[in-house]
């Protein structure tokens, strides 16, 4: 069994896999007469193929125990997928580029409070994995 060490999630180290959705360092400006601040263009939603559309769902997850045995990855050939937590608890992000006959080498990241992610279209990734 191969051990994977999770790294802290940053825009730079996650860029090959997708977007980090985070207000820190983002382009922002006031809206609604100065009563709100808009953090602009944090991720790119992708939808391709027949009947393509972007949709929004909510998922309620149960924290996983560590160490975690990775048993499944999935990908979505026609669309990106984003996870934006509604709590400050961290989650584990596992991603893989294509390998010779399926998923390649896995990479793991741990989110900080206030961070979400957007997987690129057709990227192998683990399931939603809350850990806190």
Give your account of this protein's structure.
The protein is mainly beta. The protein is built from one helix and ten strands. The strands form three sheets. Strands 1, 6, 7, 9 and 10 form a five-stranded mixed beta sheet that branches. A three-stranded antiparallel beta sheet has the order 2-8-5, with no helix packed on it. The protein is globular, with a radius of gyration of 16 Å. The two termini are 24 Å apart.
Fraction of residues in helices?
under 10%
CATH fold topology: Jelly Rolls
Largest sheet: number of strands, sense, barrel closure? 5 strands, mixed
The domain tally reads 1
Element-level helix/strand string: EHEEEEEEEEE
- DSSP, total strands: 10
At the fourth CATH level, what is the homologous superfamily? Answer: Ureidoglycolate hydrolase
Distance between the termini: 24 Å
Q: Tell me the Rg in angstroms.
A: 16 Å
Q: What is the 3D shape?
A: globular
Q: Report the CATH architecture.
A: Sandwich
Assigned CATH class: Mainly Beta
**Mean pLDDT, nearest integer?**
94
Q: What portion of residues belong to β-strands?
A: 25-35%
Output the structural class. Answer: mainly beta
How many helices? The count is 1
**Uncertain runs with pLDDT below 50, 5 residues or more?**
none
């Amino acid at each position: 069994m191969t051990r994977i060490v999770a790294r802290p999630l940053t825009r730079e180290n996650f860029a090959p896999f997708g977007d980090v959705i985070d207000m820190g360092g983002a382009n922002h400006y006031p809206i609604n007469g100065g009563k709100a601040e808009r953090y602009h263009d944090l991720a790119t939603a992708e939808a391709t193929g027949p009947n393509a559309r972007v949709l929004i769902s909510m998922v309620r997850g149960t924290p996983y125990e560590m160490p975690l045995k990775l048993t499944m990855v999935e990908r979505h050939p026609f669309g990106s997928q984003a996870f934006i937590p509604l709590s400050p608890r961290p989650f584990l992000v596992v991603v893989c580029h294509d390998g010779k006959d399926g998923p390649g080498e896995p990479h793991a990241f741990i989110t900080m409070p206030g961070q979400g992610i957007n997987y690129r279209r057709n990227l192998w990734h683990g399931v939603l994995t809350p850990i806190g």
